[in-house]
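User: I'll paste a sequence; please echo it back and then give the predicted structure.

Assistant: Echoing your sequence first, then the prediction.
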Amino acid sequence: MCLRPRRSARAGVFGSLVTLGAICVILSGCTTTQPFEQPNGSMAYQVKCTLWYQCKDEAKKMCPEGFRLVRGPNRPRPKLGNRSLVAGPIRLDFACR
């Protein structure tokens, strides 16, 4: 008969809670917005976010009368050493109407 110490069960629960917390932080994410000048001289913005709705909400906040997409949404896919793909932030370029 093999008895398992109680610590292993607690460690498993603790590990699960840490993982869940990390996922919540990643999904809540924050957005960053930078203005840039388009080739025609008009101003546009690039927003980086974790989820599409965050990018859209930031565009609505920056342009209350509406916006149009200049480029995107783009999600770069950097690769790890073992060639597996990693999800990167979403980049969305938009201009106010």
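The chain is about 35% helix and 30% strand. Residues 30-96 form one domain.
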